Amino acid sequence: MNPSALEALIEALRCLPGIGPKSAQRIAYHLLQRDRKGAQRLGDSLLHALSSIRHCQRCNTFSENDICERCASPRRDQALLCIVETPVDMNMMEQTLAYQGLYYVLMGRISPLDGVGPRELGLEQLLARVLDGVVSEVILATNYTNEGEATAHYLTAMLRPKGINVTRIARGVPVGGELEYVDSGTLAQALRERKSFQG
Amino acid sequence: MNPSALEALIEALRCLPGIGPKSAQRIAYHLLQRDRKGAQRLGDSLLHALSSIRHCQRCNTFSENDICERCASPRRDQALLCIVETPVDMNMMEQTLAYQGLYYVLMGRISPLDGVGPRELGLEQLLARVLDGVVSEVILATNYTNEGEATAHYLTAMLRPKGINVTRIARGVPVGGELEYVDSGTLAQALRERKSFQG
Ligand SMILES: [Zn+2]
Ligand SMILES: [Zn+2]
């Protein structure tokens, strides 16, 4: 019942995560009726991003250049490489202002249920990056989820035999956290990983 | 922290209803990392729809032509004009197979809270359509919501003085509906609007 260009738009909107046919139709009507300027900007910026965004050849994050600004910076510690799952995680690390090294962004995690193994993650590229002769410590900052943990274990098994010092960010009670509100798994782990107190 | 083409995409995605900054970032990453083909199709179809979709000059629905197929059909009853709020509502009416007249799609409803009054709805165009000399009955099929009802009342006050026969689709217990599950407002209305039984 809809014109074909409208049907095509409704169908195309379904590439957005979590958008079913009803929502897609609602969005298409909204854009055509109420926000043509926004729709134009979205169409333009999609096509522009697709043509200009690639992956940094060193850290694998999204970049408009072959090497991203951060990897090209002479002020970062080239001997430290922090491995994160996503660009968002990298931004979270940066916001701590506690890290001056470089990054490698996996753009995912090992997840057998989703069909993502070491090959899908392109870990050969990571291995080549780590073995550049300058990196001396790899800091695993994957999530403390089952999949993030599995990824950390896999990476450790891959990198340690190459003589790389592999570390993992600490796990425990959050800063400012009250025991009453911390889940028991975290608390048990914090107990097992207790350290000599620098009182 | 993101490349500018990516930031522009994230910003542009916020024209989608209900998408905040976090969701926009998640969607942008998803498209660039996992579904570039879908993103390309979405960009293309947005721009194509914007350039090819306009409003039918007779019924105001989305159309690729000045006059949509339905309005151009010689098989529809030109004397009946059904007024609906949206193209979806028009499709719902069509699916009943109980109506052979034409339509006018308001593309909205009178809603003072949203700043939508008679002017924003472009009701002069509707008035001109109704007064074509052929339409003899206008059937109001706006929703039975407060806003749909207000719209129906406004249209009646506008059209009846022009000598147009204005009717409203009936309200009552849904076909197949059990009294036990019908809300009391509907039931009260069905009681008030009871009719002589053709038993
Ligand atoms: Zn980089
Ligand atoms: Zn039409």
Question: Strand fraction band of chain A?
Answer: 5-15%
Query: What is the fold named in CATH at topology level of the domain at 75-168 in chain A?
Result: Dna Topoisomerase Vi A Subunit, Chain: A, domain 2
Could you report the average pLDDT of chain A, rounded to the nearest whole number? 92
Figure out the total of helices of chain A. Answer: 8
List low-confidence stretches of chain A.
Answer: none
Structural class of chain A: alpha/beta
Quaternary structure type: homodimer
Spell out which ligands are present: zinc ion
Order of helices and strands of chain A: HHHEEHEHEHEHEH
CATH class of the domain at 75-168 in chain A: Alpha Beta
Question: Describe the biggest sheet of chain A?
Answer: 4 strands, parallel
Principal-axis shape of chain A equals: globular
CATH architecture of the domain at 75-168 in chain A: 3-Layer(aba) Sandwich
Q: What is the number of beta strands of chain A?
A: 6
In helices, the fraction of residues of chain A equals 40-55%
Report strand order across the widest sheet of chain A: 4-3-5-6
Q: How far is the first residue's CA from the last residue's CA of chain A?
A: 74 Å
